[in-house]
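Hi W.,

Here's what went into the run:
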Amino acid sequence: MKKITDLIKEKRVYFDGGTGTILQEMGLPAGQPPELWNITCPEKIINLHRSYLNAGCNIIKTNTFGINADKFSNYEELIRAGIDCAKKAVDNQYEKYVAFDMGPTGKLLEPLGELKFEDAVDLFAKNVRAAADCGADLVLIETMNDSYETKAAVLAVKENCNLPVFVTNVYDASGKLMTGADPAAMIAMLEGLGVDALGMNCSLGPDIMLGIIGEFQKYSSTPVIVNPNAGLPEVIDGKTVYNIGSEDFSDYMIQLAQNGASILGGCCGTTPEFIQKTIKKTQDLPYVLPSEKDLTMVSSYTHSVIVENDPILIGERINPTGKPKLKEALKTNNLNYVLNEAIKQSEAGVHILDVNVGLPEINETEMMIKCISAIQAVSDLPLQIDTTNFETLEKAMRMYNGKPLVNSVNGTEDSMNHVLPIVQRYGGSLIALTIDEKGIPDNAKDRAKIAAKIMKRAADFGIRKKEIIVDPLALTISSNPESAIVTLESVKLIRQMGLKTSLGISNISFGLPQREIVTSTFYANALQSGLNCAIMNPFSAAMMNTYYAYRALNMLDNGCVDYINYASNDKNNHHTPSAEKPSEGSQNLHTGIVKGLKESAVACTKALLKTTEPLDVINNHIIPALNEIGTAFEQKKAYLPQLLMSAEAASASFEEVKKKISVEQSDKSKSIVLATVKGDIHDIGKNIVKVLMESYGFTVYDLGRDVSPEKIAECAVSNHCNLVGLSALMTTTVPSMAETIELLNKTDKNIKVLVGGAVLNQEYADMIGADFYGADAMDSVRYAESFYQNQ
Amino acid sequence: MKYNDVTILTANTRDIIINKNELAARLKVSRNFENDLVTLCTDRLMDVITYKCAYIKTSIDLSQINQCDFGFMDVVSRNLYQNLLGCHQAFVMAVTTGIGVDRLLAKLNVTSQAEHFITDAVSSAAVESFCDYASNILQTEYNCRPRFSPGYGDVSLKTQKPLLDRLNASELLGITLNHSYLMTPVKSITAIMGVQS
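Here's what came out:
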């Protein structure tokens, strides 16, 4: 028999419809999993399949939607029985196929949920392995409302069988998955992973899907599946009724077919009658497969970024080269610093974030994975995975939620042989550097030749030309005077070859004073030469000026709206904010902190530092202001939100002061280790204490939440820190706090432990041997201050 | 299993008036407290909230003392039994503000503890207010008992599992449970409301 993947190239094929309603009518009690019937009453399941086959559908979905190893210990038996029912119904009929059906796990993946990505892959893989040899013709992954879980399921299929894989997701009326992805983001990721068909099912009726199908038509080069519900359910007199009948349903399906849906079927509420009418009305419509879209797309878990005429900004700030603060943050595992850089760059307007964490002292693979996971919790921008370590690249591409940009492959055999298979497996667009074993050619023609070589080799791996973005390499003009000219010529030449281009733009001015002037002018030249992407510093006003001006000048910014927004934003022009008037610095710093005005506090601190010694700013201005608000809080004249705002303003001010303090002056002696104890995941209280401690100038070693006693003791010892603050919010974790204190006492009797958290009180604290009970954050700071004063 | 008898109820973000007392309690401030940052955090939060409620009306069997049989789950509890006594039906519901709130909170946890604290408080008050709004709609035709949620009194948090499964909440609302039976999105509520005969 013809393979299903061949059949869909020739003609429109049809899925079956809903099962839940029909099985309930057959007597399935509410609350009982329908999959049990695969074993207990297989004849009913077979009959259900037959009724759809008789209606004319080509593919039936096995009754295995809710099965996984976590829910059913006999999952293998249930799966085998489910496929067996479907096989018996199909009975080798011509152009009839069995789709092994996999639904979602019902759990949310990390970082927001707790299911680890690899555990999700394992869970699906168990299903796939159970199904692999039972004779299904394809795997259908359906009703997925999260892009990450969808990726886990697709990888599980690809890695455990050779069956074709079809995927349908659940979109809501706004055209997005529950966790935020739009069709373009899903298409980019799923095509990258090499699925055979993709589309939408469930949730909505065909009327609303008609509003979304255009997105698939626009972006998908892969056949599109549409399996809608029979409209929306309403419960009338205790019975569920769907609001679209079979006649209207099949009329809508005509329009869906005319707008690019290749494979049609139904979901909840549809019956064989719906499918029969749909087939009758659509089978003679002209069948057109989706065209190959020439789009270079990368994606995150919410949206895609398409590299075309409109310039793309790739933020370069998460790369330790030449950035001592980031280096330090990576070495000390300070992810917060990295996340702040990610958030600030996305707020500055970049489209993609470059992530490079390569440092000789750290495990790059571990750090890359940690950073990607953490960044994807706080930023929805697509990421550019930037590494020369092939193992790091492989692991990072695998766990990335979306379709990443890969930085980079080059023209050496070693690089192509390693990078291209990884990109083939996981899907990604690819930065290709024009360098090979002989180095970087000194002329545009030879750089273009390397680009052509990489393109050809990528094609051998099934990686399309559109996925390749060539970086012809900008070298500094301070040592290579002809560099800018050759690079610009290369950009033009490579664009003529129909390839996209990218440049690490800042390199051009390395070694020169006032680099921004040269870099931004070079950027303007490169854009004019056809450059698509720039890896750049979005905090450089000169660069952003060029970007916005170029778009306005080249009709890429309709009505100059973006330019006007940019140019009228105070942060982007050179007016002095009123708070920065030096004469008012002192008074305003105090007010700024007490009122919790962060920006004003920073501006005032800068002004004050021009005339005042750094330590005096701390002792005579910041601390008194903090004490004022702290006292007001203790006297219930100010509230917790205000205390927090003041603490943040003070911290921001303190950061400014620190810039002026030489290393010797810095007060390293006041430090504290903070942690939420093992088993407890609440960290809001601990974080409040941290902010306040930092604002009082303490060095805080924040170990996060769910921290083992050993880790806390180790941190205190290795940092010679004799003060530890522990937090717990759940009664169940108080024993874990007691255990931690016991270990700390054993480790070093000089270590003092202060405890706090919603479940604690003085009595509890005494019972578990704490040195101090902090009733609130301010209380804890006062104790910490007195601890160091008495030393 | 996809149950088809679950009804979905939504509301425009701006149509839900956040209960002022609830908000003040969550912020740990007095009722007349006003602050620019609270306003800013509230406005930003409103852009990411998607209110959704899923509910069913189901028969309950209270013939065994301290045992509430919902057909799809049996809850052994004195408190819930007392609450439902005299009812033959109950609404079983779940509401959420959506995963966008979790993402915003994760981001603020990095950038500002003050904004994180405030946004956390406002979103807690928001989900409570939406739950009130949804319960009021359900009560227009029926005389209902006060809302009762798993975790109150002697009703185990584990009740969340069959309750959410029955409502198909993972698919319809995006609500999932972790190993401690806590929900994601974090600002979600499950509840049972007895319908008085």
